[in-house]
Write a structure and sequence with these properties.
By secondary structure, the chain is an all-alpha fold. It has one domain. The chain has two helices and no strands. α1 runs antiparallel to α2. InterPro entries: DUF3098. This is DUF3098 domain-containing protein. Pfam families: DUF3098.
């Protein structure tokens, strides 16, 4: 008999983490736009925003690589 194969590529946990990563990316880019210094060379545009974007990409990478317990 055939086993019930999941229809989606990832599990629920993966998709939730991907949404969190996308939210972090959007927040990071929004924070970079809040900088009032010319050419975005203040703290928000050159330090905080890119760190949040980097965290968003790290969460996305983890979301792709993480195994969902329900899929095992």
């Amino acid at each position: 008999m055939e086993e019930n194969k999941p229809l989606l590529a990832f599990g629920r946990k993966n998709y939730i983490l991907m949404l969190v990563g996308i939210a972090l990316l959007a927040i990071g880019f929004f924070v970079m736009t809040l900088d009032t210094e010319p050419y975005g060379l203040g703290f928000l545009g050159i330090t905080l925003g890119p760190l949040i974007v980097l965290a968003g990409f790290a969460v996305e990478l983890f979301a792709i690589m993480a195994k969902d317990k329900a899929q095992k």
